[in-house]
């Protein structure tokens, strides 16, 4: 893993990578476990610096890599760097842009975060708090008496809780939160009912769930 | 008129496709068309369908869009033919989705919790039949594009390339051993990769997660009524080539208003048209999430919202084609 590759991954995590470099960087990520581990660390630190709730899966991913190293057959070979102390991404990207001293200052800040700020963020959410974990839902009852047009299974648009204004960023780049909520509902329903989406499994939903407007 | 301008803008693209010379070139460079050899007629879609409906797996997905990358955790388990899958974002605001059989529940940023019914596997074709590669002609070329390595596994690359700029192309990287798609490239009208979804790690047949408490959903709204197309009060004047109405249903939206949902498809791409009778606020003009475009506005006293994974001009053209039909069931 070269320093340049590491900087590209850092820029990708910030959404600042040049378009032409996105494809090669993703390919490098795909092939290089060291870069993959760096990506995990950068995501973790970036989320902490942005004040976002951290998911324990970040640590689980790293722990799994270590466990797989010890266990034997490794689906994705783990990185040498996975055992090193995480280097602050913000410090690295800043070093080239702002100079050595600014980088040291950010590194110190990140070290402070790692020691004092991150542990409470990793604490599992209290019951009832907002979490992406969703309860299992039983399959819907069949629609009785419906006139079948062509697909026997139809979509149904059901909002289980009132759609309130979305927190955070405007995914659709609109000023009206109510319209954003409506578009999200339309989109999820669309992905469920679009005919050929069936062959893509859960992939079409990755766009819905994964998409986030610029940070 | 704004609407006329939208029509003109949409169709100017059809008349003068960007880099139109590229499509014949792509076709000539096509490695092997799937339909060309009988043995390769082993349907890639059938392999994907079998994998998606039978495999237990977990992994980490990366989703690349707009020069950004998001990380998601994915888990699927299949019990007696019932597919249960979870998708969870690992960065940014907490978001997640759970599929349990035919039910999909999704939580996005904030208070959104949306539940919809998933179309069943084997009904991907325009008329509810299993999708076949040959059904996609003449608007797509289905090609075998060799092999590649993804998530430390060998994959067979299948390209579905559009023959014009009115729809996107796809490149599926199917696990050679199982048929599971390990990577999906979304190709834009200029043959540029717009988005990528890719496993960075994959574990097949993982231990099933601990049983979770099963929660009954609250009373759902009235089930949708599937409307025969001849009774539709809406028609389409001049759709982009290849797109046709494949389903229509009427249901209630979250506020109790009537909502009509019409689905158009060219065999692969799908575009939804939502018609609201209420005067609620809705999308005006165009917007997008990644490569998914939406276009909305008022038509004959109703609010129309068009959503689909298609270029902006195509979605705008569908919006412009919507017309109120006299004599239809109101």
What does this structure look like?
- Chain A has 215 residues and is an all-alpha fold.
- Chain A folds into two domains: 3-122, no CATH class; 155-215, no CATH class.
- Chain A is 53% helix and 2% strand.
- Chain A is built from eight helices and two strands; from the N terminus they run H-H-H-H-H-H-E-E-H-H.
- In chain A, helix 1 (3-13) crosses helix 3 (33-49), helix 2 crosses helix 3 and helix 5 runs antiparallel to helix 6.
- The radius of gyration of chain A is 21 Å and the shape is extended.
- Mean pLDDT of chain B is 80; it is low at 7-21, 23-41 and 210-223.
- Chain B is mainly beta and 330 residues long.
- In chain B, the strands form three sheets. Chain B has a twelve-stranded antiparallel beta sheet. Chain B has a seven-stranded antiparallel beta sheet with strand order 14-16-17-18-21-20-19, covered by helices on one side.
- In chain B, 13% of the residues lie in helices and 44% in strands.
- Chain B has two domains: 2-15 and 221-324, MucB/RseB, C-terminal domain (Phosphorylase Kinase, domain 1), CATH 3.30.200.100; 31-204, outer membrane lipoprotein receptor (LolB), chain A (Clam), CATH 2.50.20.
- The chains are: A mainly alpha (215), B mainly beta (330).
- At the A-B interface, helix 2, helix 3, helix 4, strand 1 and strand 2 of A face helix 3, strand 2, strand 3, strand 4 and strand 5 of B.
Class computed from helices, strands and strand pairing of chain B: mainly beta
Total domain modules of chain B: 2
CATH topology of the largest domain in chain B: outer membrane lipoprotein receptor (LolB), chain A
Q: What order do the helices and strands of chain A follow?
A: HHHHHHEEHH
**Regions with little confidence, pLDDT below 50 for 5+ residues of chain B:** 7-21, 23-41, 210-223
Q: How many domains of chain A, as an integer? A: 2
Helix vs. strand class of chain A: mainly alpha
The whole-angstrom Rg of chain A is 21 Å
Mean pLDDT of chain B: 80
Number of helical regions of chain B:
4
The greatest interface between two protein chains, and residues involved on each side, is: A-B, 106 and 129 residues
Largest sheet of chain A: none
Helix content class of chain B: 10-25%
Q: What share of the residues of chain B does DSSP label as strand, in percent?
A: 35-45%
| Biggest sheet, spatial arrangement of strands of chain B | 1-8-9-10-11-12-2-3-4-5-6-7
Strand tally of chain B = 22
The multimeric state of the shown protein is heterodimer
Question: What is the string of SSEs of chain B from the N terminus onward?
Answer: HHEHEEEEEEEEEEEEEEEEEEEEHE
Count of helical regions of chain A: 8
